[in-house]
Amino acid sequence: MISPGAQRPTQRQLTVSQWLGQNLFATWSNTLLTLVCLAGLGLVGGMICRWLLLYADLAVISTNLRLFWVGRYPLAQTWRLWGILTIASGTLAISWTLLVSLQRRTLMAWIALGLVNGAFSLAGGLTWGIISGLCLWIVGGLSLGQFLRHRHPTLPWLWLLPVQWVLALVTTLWLLGGGWGLTPVSTAFWNGLLLTVLLAVISIGLSFPLGILLALGRRSSLPVIRGLCVIYIEGMRGLPLIGVLFMAQVMVPLVLPPSMQLDQVLRGIIGLTLFSAAYLAENVRGGLQSIPPGQTEAAQALGLSAPLVLGLIVLPQALRAVIPALVGQFIGLFKDTSLLAIVGLVELTRMGRSILAQPQFQGRYLEVYLFTGLIYWICCYGLSMGSRRIEAILKVGQR
Amino acid sequence: MMRLLLKFFCRGCPPWVWRWGTQVLVLILVVWMGAYGWTNLVYNLQRLNLSLGFGFLQNQAGFNLGEAPIAFSSTDSYAWAFWVGWLNSLRVIGAGLILTTLLGVLLGLAGVAQNWLARNLALVYVEVIRNTPLLLQLFFLYGVLFLSLPPGAPAIQWVGWLYLSHQGVSLRSLVFLPGAWVWGLWGMLGLGTLLVLWKWQPWPGGVGMRKLVAGGAIATLIATLIAAFLTGHSPLGWDAPYLDPNQQVQGGLSLSAEFVALLLGLTLHTAAFIAEIVRGSLLAVPRGQWEAATALGLKPRLRMRLVIFPQALRIIVPPLTSQYLNLAKNSSLAIAIGYPDLYAVATTTLNQTGRAVEVVGLLMTVYLSLSLLIAGGMNLLNRQIQRGGVA
What we know:
Chain B: This is ABC transporter permease subunit. The complex is a heterodimer. Chain A is mainly alpha-helical. Helices cover about 75% and strands about 0% of the residues of chain A. By secondary structure, chain B is of the alpha+beta class. In chain B, the strands form three sheets. Chain B has a four-stranded antiparallel β-sheet with strand order 1-2-3-8. In chain B, strands 4-5 form a two-stranded antiparallel ribbon. In chain B, α8 (about 255-285) crosses α10 (about 300-330) and α12 (about 340-355) packs antiparallel against α13 (about 355-385). At the A-B interface, α2, α10, α11, α15 and α16 of A face α2, α4, α5, α8 and α9 of B.
C-alpha cells in the first residue's frame, strides 16, 4: 500500500529491474498477486484473441451501422440528420472554447481528422467528405469561440450559453420532427444513438432547473414547501427507475384527459426528468450546505434582495462545488436512457436487440453488445473527461 | 381603499403574510393538480370500464413463473404470484448485497495496492463497468453466458463441481445432513456461553485473557468438527451435481440462467461503484495516520486492518448505503432477461387485468418499504460506527 499523496523524495531514475522489484515483486505475496493477475490477463486476453480471429463476424456491425446511429429514420431525409450534426457540433465547439481555453493541440487534432477524412473521400464516398467538412466546421466553431472570448472578455458568456443551446435544440427538434415546410417524421422513426442522445440531453436540461428548485425547497424555512419537497425527493429516490418509467408510460395517459395524449418519447422524457431531478436535488443540496452562512449574511449586509443573494452569491458557489457530482448524475442519466428499451422506445440498446433478431445475424451477441457498449463507453468517458477539464478551469476544490 | 390595499401588499405587508400566503398558494396548486388528475383518472377508468379495488388479487393468475422458491402454479391467485415474485426479488437482492460487498471491497483495496498490475487492472475494471449501462451488461451476460450455448447437454463441465448449460448452472454445494440439528444446538449453546463469558468476564487479565478463552473455544469447535468429518459423523455434506445417462444434470445447487445472469450483472456492476467508494475513503484517511502506523512498525496488512480501514469505514458507510439501495432497485431490471421478480409479475398482471393504478401502487409501496428498510438498517450500522463501536 502506498500512503496517499505522500511527498516522495526526489525522483530517482529506476532501472527496469528496480521498477519491477518495487512495483510487482516487492514481497512474496506481491509476487503471487502479480502472477495471479498475469494468469487472469492471459486467460482473458487469449479468449478475446481466439474469438476475434476465429469466431467474430463484424459484418453484423458494418451492415447495420446506420441502424445503430439513427435507426429507421427515412433515407430520403438524411440531409436533415447531417444538418442536426452540424448544428450540434458547432454549438459544442463554441461552448467548449467559451468555457475552456483552446489548446493548439485540440485544433491540430481536428484539422488532422478533417484532412484524413478528406483523403478518404477522394477515394470515393460522400460520407467521408461530409465528415471532413464537419471537422473543419468544428475547427471554425472552436476558433470563433476563442475569438469572441478574447475580443469581448467582459461579456457574460456563461449566461449566454443556455440561450445558444435552447436555440440549437429547438432547431434540432424542428429538423427531426418536420412540420413548417418539412416532411413530418413520426417519433417512431427516431431510433438508435440519435434517440439516446436526444433523450439524455433534453432530460438533463429539464431536470437541472427542477433539481435546483427542489433543493431550494427542501432548505426552505416554509414547512409546507419543505415537507412537499422532502416527500417528493425521498419518495422518488426509493423507487426503481424502471418503475417510474413504467408509471410515466401507463399512469400519465390515465391522469390526463383523453383529448390530451402525449407522445411515447415525451412520456419517456417525463419519467427520466422526474426521476433524475430528485437525485440532482440531493447533489445541489450538498453544495448549498457547503456554503458558509457568512456568505449569505455578507450579501444581505450589502443590501441584496433574497433572489439576488441566491442567484449571485449562493448558487454559483454551490453549483461549482458539486460539478463532479452533477456530471456523475448526468452520466448516470445517459446510461439510464437504456431502460427506456424495456418500455418500448427503440434507442441504442433496443436497437442492438432488434439487430440480433435479424435472421442472418442470430446469436451474434458478443459483436453487437460489445459495439453498443463501446458507444456508451465513449460517450460517458468523454463526458467525464470534459467535466474534469472544466473542473480544472473553474478550480473546483481549490478555493 | 385602493391605497390601503396597495400599502398592505407592497410595503406594510408583514413577513408572516408572505410566508403563509406562499405556502397556502402552493398547497392549493398541489391539491388542484391532484384533484385534476383524480377526476381524469376516474373518467378514464369509466371509459375503459374498469373499477378501482384490490379484489382482483384473489382471482386466478393463469400464468406460470419460470422459477419459484415456493410452490406456484397457474391456478394460484394473483396475490400468491406477487408473493412468489417478491421472494424471488429478495433472493437475488440478498445474495447480490453480500457478493457485491466482498468484490467491491477487494477491488477497492486493489485500487490502492502497491502492486502496479493489480492497481491498474482494478482501475480498468471500474472505468469499463461504470461507463456502460447495467441493462446492456445484463443482456451481454445473459446472451454470452447462456443464450449462445446450444440447448441440451452442458457445454462447460468441471466434473463434480460445475456444469453450465443453456438452462443454467449447477454447482457443488454444502448441505446439512440429517443429524445436523444436534450440531446446531451444540454450537448455539457454545456460542451463547462464550458470549456470556465475554460480556461478564469472570476472570482477571483483561483483553488478552478474553482473546485466549474465545480462541480456545473456537479451536475446540473446529477440532470437534474435523474429528466428526474424519469419523463420518459430520453435520455437513457435499451435494455434487452429476450427469445422468440422458445427459441431464442432477443434484447439486442448481441455479437458473436468468438468476445467475441477473446476480452476476448486479454484483459486477455495483462492485465497481463500491470499489470507487472504498478507494476514495482509504485515500481520504489523513496521511499522518498512514505514516504514524508505519512509524509504529506495523506491517502493511496490520496497518490496513487496525488503523486505516476502521477510519475509512466511517467515510464508506453513507455512500455504501446508497449503492445497496441502487442494487435493490436495479434488481427490477430482471424483467429484461425474464427472471420472474416482483416487477416482472406486476407487469404481467397489469397486462392481463389492466389494473394500472392498483398494480403500480402495490409495486411502489413494496419497493419504497424495502428501500426504507435497507436505509434504516444501514443508518443503525452507521451510528454504531460513528460512535466508535465497531472497529
